[in-house]
């Protein structure tokens, strides 16, 4: 009778250990695409809020082949170019605030998309200007299980 009890205790210990190992993984590796999207979006907002110019951190939220089509028609291709582009914007200090409002989010297999608005306040010579862009973001789940931005299109 004590053998089944000790086996039960061993099984519970193994399950608890497995559960704690799973919860210790990075939140980016979440299998829930919306949760991963929210984490990546929060990181992007924090880069602008805190003027973080860490290229490695900027690259980490984009796929290798990511593309951004900005509202003014400028196209940036590849996560290295995107990280460099945002690093220059952040270094210039012109962006006072950047906030994303997501209106829609859908997932189908290894791909998700989100749409909404981004509110950007930019410092100009005499005052600040506010822009509200619409956006569409496509996220891909990579082989490592991390959801990253792959394609972003903005429009005014």
Provide a compact summary of the structure.
38% of the residues lie in helices and 39% in strands. It is an alpha+beta fold and 156 residues long.
Structure overview:
The chain is α+β, with helices and mostly antiparallel strands. It contains four helices and six strands. It has a single domain, classed as Nuclear Transport Factor 2, Chain: A (Roll). A hairpin with a 5-residue loop joins strand 1 (62-69) and strand 2 (75-77). The longest helix has 22 residues, at 2-23. The chain starts with a helix and ends with a strand. Mean pLDDT is 81; it is low at 1-30.
Secondary structure elements and their pairing?
Blueprint (H helix, E strand, L loop, with lengths): L1 H22 L9 H18 L4 H5 L2 E8 L5 E3 L1 H14 L2 E14 L2 E13 L4 E14 L5 E9 L1
Parallel strand pairs: 1-6
Antiparallel strand pairs: 1-2, 3-4, 4-5, 5-6
Q: Report Rg.
A: 20 Å
What is the total domain count? 1
Identify the overall geometry: globular
What class would the helix/strand composition place it in?
alpha+beta
Amount of helix: 25-40%
Write the CATH architecture name: Roll
- The fraction of residues in strands falls at 35-45%
Strand order of the largest sheet: 2-1-6-5-4-3
Oligomer: single chain
- What's the average pLDDT? 81
Q: What's the CATH class, please?
A: Alpha Beta
Low-confidence stretches: 1-30
How large is the count of helical segments?
4
End-to-end separation in angstroms reads 72 Å
Order of secondary-structure elements: HHHEEHEEEE
CATH topology: Nuclear Transport Factor 2, Chain: A
Number of strands: 6
Major pleated sheet: 6 strands, mixed
């Amino acid at each position: 009778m004590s053998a089944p009890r000790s086996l039960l205790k061993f099984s519970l210990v193994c399950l608890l250990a497995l559960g704690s190992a799973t919860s210790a993984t990075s939140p980016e590796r979440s299998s829930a695409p919306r949760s991963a999207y929210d984490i990546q979006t929060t990181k992007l907002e924090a880069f602008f809020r805190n003027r973080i110019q860490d290229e490695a951190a900027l690259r980490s939220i984009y796929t290798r082949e990511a593309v951004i089509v900005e509202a003014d028609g400028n196209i940036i291709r590849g996560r290295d170019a995107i990280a460099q582009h945002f690093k220059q914007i952040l270094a210039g200090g012109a962006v006072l605030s950047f906030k994303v409002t997501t209106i829609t989010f859908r997932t189908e297999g290894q791909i998700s998309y989100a749409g909404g608005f981004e509110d950007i306040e930019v410092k100009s010579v005499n005052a600040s200007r506010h822009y509200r862009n619409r956006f569409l973001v496509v996220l891909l789940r990579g082989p490592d299980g991390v959801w990253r931005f792959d394609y972003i299109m903005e429009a005014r």
